[in-house]
Structure prediction request, 415 residues.
Amino acid sequence: MILPVSEFRPSARVARVRISPNAAANARAKALRDAGRDIINLTIGEPDFDTPQHIKAAAAEALARGDTKYPPTEGTPALRQAVAAKTSTATGLVYSPTQILIGNGAKQLIANAFSATVEPGDEVAIPAPYWPSFPDAALYTGARPVFVATAEARGFRLDAAGLDAALGPRTRWLVLNAPANPTGADYPADDLEAIARVLRRHPQVLVLLDEVYEQIRYDVPPPHLLAIAPDLRDRVLVVNAASKTYAMTGWRLGYAAGPEPLIRAMTVVQSQFTAGVSTVAQAAGLAALTGPQDFVAETRAAYAERRRLVTEGIAATPGLTLAAPAGAFFAFPGCAALIGTQRPDGGIIASDADFTEYLLEEAGVAAMPGAAFGLSPYFRISFATDAATVTEALRRIAAAVADLRPAPALAVAGA
Ligand SMILES: Cc1ncc(COP(=O)(O)O)c(C=O)c1O
Prediction:
């Protein structure tokens, strides 16, 4: 018997979680474009570059030699070895392949880590603004996200006192994403030292270090948290992926390095839910990590130029503010001064969601409201798109902002 749609009841677990807001906004922008609208889509955090040729060639070779059978759940020995070597170099510690798990993108590894460790009622501390999948992955597993506020004035970096106050006996994880989505925040050595001091006071807390934007940094890269605080290594799970660094979002290849018991528990989860990652993607990932790295430097330079265009463009737009991103390919401008203004059609901008809706309708620029990342009134633009498009988007945003007017007093009172 087929169940009528009206009677379908999702599990409480699923009911706690939303479809990714980024995916939804991206779909809306694409639908408008398909309907003939001239839309610049800045909603999506995906490199606009193609995967480098030598990586594709390695995948083709894997296919040609028949490397098409079930992969080992935890990842191929060669790729685990490459990730262990990379993590050892980054941290100055010695990692062995048994401390490495290859997963279907960073996203799956994060959900896997929470699934393997949290009990209902446990807390996951997440700096806000945040990448929306952090709280949703925590919620799915029955944990309670606890948000730790960060401020534009401090470049959206966690401060030690705020962090200390947020951690408690039920905290299972602290999520640290650096450089961060959506703000580009990154942590210099003295910040990492202060965070490590707080963590030592809370020995029950594991740290999920999300480094997917590790290679997209605009200043001298800071030291690794584990180079600063090697004593934390039994509590730190480093999560990374080929997705952003090598323009491999579609290959679904992530990796995690951490204490062996945690990696073993995550391997159990993986063995029952997704099994090992596609053999072809793993062969490609090995070529990515061990092959030439020119692509990484070239794309970093391209992102740096776009970041310059964005920071200058926002600075030249009255009403917007920006803490310049230290890394990643996102800017998270503030639009507080525009809240309460009036659109040319009379509508009132009462929230960042109203502002991004206005940008979409008036300027044909799709951006994400800060509310989706847990902080208003802000909005996120991705500059993982070519410089000419970024320039045009900034021009349109400035023109749309210039068209806003102070609202009549009555409307402001009612807004
Ligand atoms: C902070 C952060 N972590 C993880 C991911 C997802 O990475 P992957 O595509 O490897 O699952 C993203 C993608 O937007 C991200 O911004």
